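Supplementary Methods. Inverse-folding protocol.

Structures were first reduced to a discrete structure-token string of length 178. This string, shown here, constituted the complete conditioning input.
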């Protein structure tokens, strides 16, 4: 079972906190360059399969990710848990999944708490972007790629506690009357 979603990293300055008695100037990147990572996270092994570009994530990108997963030659059926993004739910993606023997499971709308890969994207943003300045887009890309490459080695212990199968649900929550 893989959890699939895209993260759109934008080259910008992300402040962790700023508080001081004197004026402080913080360097900031200019422009709006995006680094898009479409990922599929294995729920058990925490292995990440990616499709990366600097333009847009489209149905074609999702189909390429499906082919990459299918080419791994898994001996058991593969299920991809996806949100309801248009480019994931279209006929092109569903046809490719059927052709490759991959089952697609769509989450309810507005439920990122049920998608395990959302925790991974939050972790990557905290490790790579928060309170850091990247001189140029190449260094920005290298920082993200380095973090993603180190997921199963350097960050393995942190991810073991972060990527558990405990999901937040709203079934047993008592809501106050307004």
């Amino acid at each position: 079972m893989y959890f699939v979603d895209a993260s759109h990293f934008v080259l910008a300055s992300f402040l962790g906190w700023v508080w001081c008695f004197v004026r402080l100037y913080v360097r900031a990147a200019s422009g709006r360059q995006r680094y898009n990572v479409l990922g599929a996270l294995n729920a058990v092994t925490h292995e990440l399969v990616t499709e990366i570009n600097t333009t847009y994530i489209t149905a074609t990108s999702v189909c390429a990710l499906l082919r990459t997963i299918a080419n791994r030659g898994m001996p058991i059926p593969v299920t991809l848990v996806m949100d309801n993004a248009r480019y994931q739910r279209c006929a092109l993606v569903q046809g490719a999944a059927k052709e490759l023997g991959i089952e697609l499971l769509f989450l309810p709308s507005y439920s990122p708490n049920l998608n395990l890969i959302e925790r991974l994207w939050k972790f990557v943003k905290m490790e790579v972007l928060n309170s850091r300045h990247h001189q140029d887009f190449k260094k920005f890309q290298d920082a993200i790629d380095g973090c993603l490459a180190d997921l199963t080695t350097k960050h393995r212990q942190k991810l073991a506690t972060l990527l558990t199968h405990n999901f937040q649900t709203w079934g047993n929550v008592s809501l106050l009357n307004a």
